[in-house]
From TrEMBL, chain A:
One of its GO terms (cellular component) is plasma membrane. Pfam families: BPD_transp_1. The lineage of its organism: Bacteria, Bacillati, Bacillota, Bacilli, Bacillales. It is found in: Cell membrane. The chain crosses the membrane at residues 30-51, 94-115, 127-147, 184-213, 234-259, 293-317. This is ABC transmembrane type-1 domain-containing protein. Keywords: Cell membrane, Membrane, Transmembrane, Transmembrane helix, Transport.
Automatic annotation (TrEMBL), chain B:
InterPro entries: Bact_solute-bd_prot1 (IPR050490), SBP (IPR006059). It comes from the Bacteria. Keywords: Signal, Transport. This is Probable sugar-binding periplasmic protein. Gene3D superfamilies: Periplasmic binding protein-like II (3.40.190.10). PROSITE patterns: PROKAR_LIPOPROTEIN (PS51257). Residues 1-20 form the signal peptide.
Amino acid sequence: MVETVSITPAEKTAGVPAVRKKRKWTADHWLAAAFLAPSVVLIFLFVYGFIGWTGYVSLSNWNSLVPDWSFAGLKNYLYLFHDFRFQADLRNTLVFTVLFIAAVIVLGQLLAILLDQKLRGESLFRNIFFFPMALSFVVTGVVWQWLFNPSTGVNLFLKPLDLDSKWYTDTTILGGFHWGKIEFGIPVAIIAVVVAAVWQMTGFAVAMYLAGLRAIPDEVREAARMDGATEFQLYWKIILPLLRPITVSVIIIMAHISLKIFDLIYAMTGPGANFVTDVPGVYMFETTFRGNYYANGAAIAIVMLLSVAIFIVPYLISSRKGGS
Amino acid sequence: MRKKASAWLALALGIGMALSGCSSSNSSSDNAKQGSQKAGEKLEIFSWWTGAGEEDGLKALIKLFQEKYPDIEVENAAVAGGAGTNAKAVLASRMQGNDPPSTFQVHGGAELNEGWVAAGKMEPLNDLYEKEGWMDKFPKALIDMVSKDGNIYSVPVNIHRGNVLWYNKKIFADNGLQPPKTFDEFFQVADKLKAKGITPLALGDKEPWVATHLFENVLLGTLGTENYKKLWTGEVSFNDPQVKQAVETFKKMLNYINEDHSSRNWQDAAQLVAEGKAAMYVMGDWVKGYFVNDLKLKVNQDFGYVPVPNTEGKFMVITDTFGLPKGVKNPDDVKKFLAVLGSVEGQDAFNPLKGSIPARIDADPSKYDEYGKQTMQDFKTAELAPSLAHGSAAPEGFVTKVNQAVNIFVTQKDVKTFIDTLASAATELKK
């Protein structure tokens, strides 16, 4: 995944560094710049420009249909962090992200290793695991909403066995203790959502790990076996550590999906009773476009941006260093 | 070099096309502006009427309009989503961006007055009311709901009643029960049903407004119309003992609901009553359209209706209205449409299909079913109360906060926290 293209060697062979300083822009450079300019301008305007705009709104008093640009300081942020619903959102996002990423990594590695055993019909299995990726989260949400519906769905099979559950309507918080205004712990309802998300995204991790496994030369395995390593030791001590860079990539990709998740929750459960399945994305949408609290909504968006940045920025920095 | 030249050419062409694209779209919108002097500008009708019944009603209304004004092109810009939640989001973006639809659906009351009128986005329609002679054709209390500071801002097309208790006739007959008229009777009936293993009250609060809808009815039944209305002006505080009593009643009711309430929307909850899995359901009378059109049930055979306990002689009004936003290019066409919308003919074309009753008091009762006739009668005599859950009583921002508080209360059942939250949210209400 780490792709930093270094042009230094080519330049070195091309000529003396002194020439490079004086070098004039040729038509080629102008052409390249001209082709890049529109997308650079658009990205700066529509991505970074509007991030700045959102940040500005989040510091204003615009909490009704009439824009009010007066400076509010951190009022909107303070309101959020004292708000029951937002505290519940933070808890849910944290629990969802941890469970989701852990499950995707474990299942992804397991399935990829099983697929790597040169079994017959491998491509068939690969496709079966990968196809859920082709669906949108909205479709996944609707399907699993019915599967986990407490009065229909899988409960029809589980009820005779006395194993039926309330799934995403369960309001229990596991291991709960008081924190701020909420009960902190693992909301049982969020587990149903995690299952749906894992079902959809595991195929992606399988594909990445499979590519990683294929990139490990056979010599490594043979050498380990020559040295008398068991199959378990081979995987646990050699193969899995070699897959670590893939795991980092999987974590980055899954974290930014799960921290920003909206469509799956919106289609599957909504905010849930007592906000057990609410996430910042849903709250942002409802408070901004239904309640007309634009500044509060912008503050939620900025908090979401920062939470993703916590994962992305170190990754970008480390990949730059790794490249040079 | 030739390659480079062709690349430059491609770039130049690309830029040229982009520019000409802009200019051509400019000229076409110029044309449209000129055309609107005649009949070129489309009349865009924005609503959230996409469900069975309501969509037919809207189409009948548009058909009537086009028979009268064949030159005006109409665009039905409906956005799907229960109770207009998605449509309102789209509308807010368009109004903020100064791209209003020609006319749009808005609930009479705070949603109109404290929302779009207060934001200075609506044109007054007093002249239209004068011209069409409507001042005595709509009930005064209703005109007040669409007026602010002496100006009238929209035309009501229909009336829905919010305080209706729907019940399964067969369950009540089998158990020898009478529909309850007071909260005490409600709990007696509910206890008997619960003892027999029947869910007494259906609720589907996957979208939290459904629970708020139940709560506002309990508030109306406990406080009475006068004090209920004063809640929204701040004259009666949420710390009032009567509010506490209402919250306690609401809390007690929650002991009688179906367990999977948070996985159901309002239609799914209505199904429980239709299928005989639950006995009673508090919901606005759009549920009648759902029973009759979608589930093919018969009024007064399969299901019956009474006012919500303690609210007889009271009428929780939900009225859909259409107004004229500022900055539309064809205000005269919009007024022609509003004139049709407010006419007896227009209201009688729309309402029987939608399952609502006309907002005018001189419409033709023979066009309506049994339920409609009785409701039209009640509408003339009952005390009108604005609905909170549907945006008539208080601004959207307050409603959003109440919905959140109710959503928490339904699970936690913590009376004190609930009332504190309501009281602190109410500081936003204008006096």
